[in-house]
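hey so i finally got around to running the thing on that chain from the lab meeting. sorry it took forever, my laptop kept dying and i had to restart like 3 times. anyway pasting the input first so we r on the same page abt which one it is
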Amino acid sequence: MNNILDGIDNAKYVMIVADAKNLSCASALYTHLLRMHKKVSLVCESKNIDNKFSFLPWFEKIKSGRITSADFIIELNISSLELYDLFNNSNIKINHKMATALYSGLLVETSGFLNSSVSGTIFAAAKELIECGADYKICTDFIMKRATLCALRLKAIMLEKMILQNSAKAAVFYICDDDLKRTGAILQECDEVLEEALMLPYVELSVLLNLDNEYEVLKLKVKEI
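ok and heres what got predicted. didnt touch it at all, straight out
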């Protein structure tokens, strides 16, 4: 990861490329680069970006296509805790915008500090980020409480079709294109239901299958042990 910082120091134009799940980290890194007075662009190639991320600093600056003039490209694939550690270990001061972005990332990656990946280290990082000015209330409102009518309609359909298999160790969901069209939801909004299923007793895996394409696996979640 230190190679990223070295590359940034020597670059004239930095392009951060992230997918939707890494937008929190991308926002924090983007803020740091602006503070360094670097020319920087943030690119997200995911087709649909969930509106729950719209509160992130610089969300309106996200581009959908790559910039050919950038001389240093960061293909971002790092957890919020890893980026937090990188900043701290490199004596990079975390301001309130960076703290808000990183805190939101911790919320997303730990399902609101509820999944099995949560440790004392994560709680300590969250505490430090709040002390750095993270707006934890807006993070919680958007990441954990924000629900759309479309998502609720889709959730109802998914739960109606859910079955438990393999001695209740697998929660299986089915969806078709017509379900998305009728509810107005997007595929990313299935993630919350899959995560919730992992909280059921005995369930170790949740999977979403496509009814339109011979039960193609669309999404798969595994409980971390």
